[in-house]
Amino acid sequence: MLVSQGTPMSGRAPKxxxxxxxxxxxxxxxPLLAEAGLGHRGVVIGHDLLGGAFVYDPFExxxxxxxxxxxxxxxxxxxxxxxxFIKTYLWRQAVYGRRAWVVDPKGxxxxxxxxxxxxxxxxxxxxxxxLNPLEPGPSPPESAEGGSGAxxxxxxxxxxxxxxxxxxxxxxxxxxxxxxxxxxxAGASDVPTLPRVIDTLLSPSAASxxxxxxxxxxxxxxxRDVALELRRLVHGDLRGMFDGPTSATIDLSAPLVVLxxxxxxxxxxxxxxxxxxxxxxxxxLAREARERPGASNGLIVVVDExxxxxxxxxxxxxxxxxxxxxxxxxxxxxxxxxRASDLQAVGSAGSEQVGLAQGLLSDSETxxxxxxxxxxxxxxxxxxxxxxxxADLLPQLRRGVALWKVGARSFLVQHRLAPDEGPLVxxxxxMGADGR
Length: 436
Ligand SMILES: Nc1ncnc2c1ncn2[C@@H]1O[C@H](COP(=O)(O)OP(=O)(O)OP(=O)(O)O)[C@@H](O)[C@H]1O
Ligand SMILES: [Mg+2]
What we know:
Blueprint: H1 23-29, E1 43-48, E2 53-56, H2 58-63, E3 72-75, H3 82-93, E4 100-104, H4 110-116, E5 121-122, H5 149-166, H6 172-186, H7 194-202, H8 206-211, H9 216-230, E6 256-260, H10 270-291, E7 299-303, H11 307-310, H12 313-323, H13 326-329, E8 331-336, H14 352-362, E9 366-369, H15 377-384, H16 388-393, E10 401-406, E11 409-415, H17 422-425, H18 427-434
This protein binds adenosine-5'-triphosphate and magnesium ion.
């Protein structure tokens, strides 16, 4: 008989040492309950509620073949801890020398930037800093159809911006007018800017008109609405941010680059501005890859509040295509959304537009899902292929707890804040201060 300390023979309650077991053994003992985890290489995110620390690194998992892409989409109701997770995740990745570029529509990454010893790049109408979204970037896959890669990327971006500003899809005449304006500018030695595209749209040359068997007056009419809408970014309420050569003051070699768009957070044009900012980041990435091959490996690019971009289908299409370049550059993208249905809100059911927005999801093999309202559970279950048990959990998740889907595997993770990370993430205090 095995007699151990404090057995019933002594008449006292037994005091047995706590049973210890490795997560690998636990996984084998409880195969449908416990997961072996994702290994120990990466940053600690927090606590796996079914056992042990939860460690994650998309670059590592991609290298191991566990993931086929390093991109991530984060969903969650307001105030559930999405941005806090991103900020601490970037901060912890810095230990491994990883850099990050962030599109920050709320202006809430300033404390993180300060901790990293950098200043956010504040973009505001009539401000000091300009970014040129038309700088040459990666070539869209369709570039085989004709035109140089740079031309086609500029065309896709301008078409997306114009369609977002006009609130409708462009007609073929409008697309051709943009294409001809870009072609007319292509011969110049310097990079096109939005003011020059608009001038060219409003003063088309005879040679451009002849190329489509038209005349200058008709070509002007074809491009007039596009030019007048884009003019908003040059002379209107959005002037002074994306309407000239990029300011020399921006240091992209910094460990963290934050593009602060908070001056226009409540503007209906937020999506357009975020698209311009993301376009510029992509050009910068392509330039870095040309000038310093391999330097972008391990870069993390975050688009917080990305729902504002997806609300416009032209821009959503452009963003989705651009995510495909990330693999070539060794970059991990992160988009932050509120609801799974943000991905369906861009068009009618079954439309090409919805397919494009959902393509963003299929290019993101890591999905982090914070609490969703009961009315969203069905959309989340269908879009994210959740089991009925996982879907039922979503409305009950408390702040900081998320369902992680990493490839085909699932984890329930409590994100933990380290004692010194509180000031980096406290958006409740910021909301109290400015009344938002
Ligand atoms: N894991 C956590 N533990 C404790 N507090 C947390 C945790 N995550 C977030 N918080 C707190 O919750 C508040 C809201 O977090 P956060 O701003 O990250 O939410 P959010 O989901 O990004 O909201 P929004 O949709 O409005 O952008 C912050 O003040 C933060 O300090
Ligand atoms: Mg947030």
